[in-house]
Design goal:
Blueprint lengths: L2 H15 L1 H16 L4 H23 L1
Helix pairs in contact: 1-2
Length: 62
């Protein structure tokens, strides 16, 4: 099974359990992809992810 097929199946399986588990697997996939990139690019991507997650948290915490 190729990597993309694995992740698609794994994320779908976790989404069936709960949205939180699906989100955690998506972050695991992102972490594995960013691991091999230039640290500057990876850090910028993580900052963008953090900003988006904070916006989602703020929206649903109201």
């Amino acid at each position: 099974m190729s990597g993309s097929a694995y992740w698609a199946k794994e994320i779908k399986r976790r989404d069936a359990k709960s949205p939180k588990e699906g989100a955690i697997r998506r972050l695991d996939r992102l972490r594995s992809e960013l691991r091999d990139l230039d640290p500057v690019v990876a850090n910028r991507a993580w900052r963008e992810v953090a900003d988006v997650l904070q916006a989602i948290t703020d929206r649903y915490a109201r």
